[in-house]
Amino acid sequence: MDIYNYLKKDHQKVADLMEQVIASKDPAERQSLFETIKMELTLHADTEEQTFYKAIEDATRSKQVEEKIEHANHEHDEIREYLEKLSTTPVTDELWLETFGEFKHSVTHHVEEEEGEIFEKAKKYLSSQEAKDLAKEMDALKKQSQVQSKVPADAMG
Prior knowledge:
The protein is mainly alpha-helical. It has helices at 3-23, 27-60, 63-87, 94-125, 128-150.
């Protein structure tokens, strides 16, 4: 699998989870789904920046592409802010669902731009082998991050 399909799979997984949140009437289920979304998106954004975005920047040195990556990073930051806001608002609060709607719109907008503009640019600069290697690298980094986040702090020594 190449990085484009890998990212699309991640994007679809989160889109499905967001639809489940909106469809759910049960606050506990909604909270649980949100926690999964938060973990998925945080892992996705962090590892994507370290692998895919970095590879594009290293391969191109184009001002236009650098601006696209900078914009995408800014959108990741905006998504992180929404995650923080949603994490500190009770899921039973009316404001939570309203904020979740804004958050969903922000994520959807980012995905559309990324899968359209950034993928298009990346395909000009990254070989198909590099795209496959990036998918493996991002997957390995996500697994490593998941393991590290589950290790208690005192076990780190």
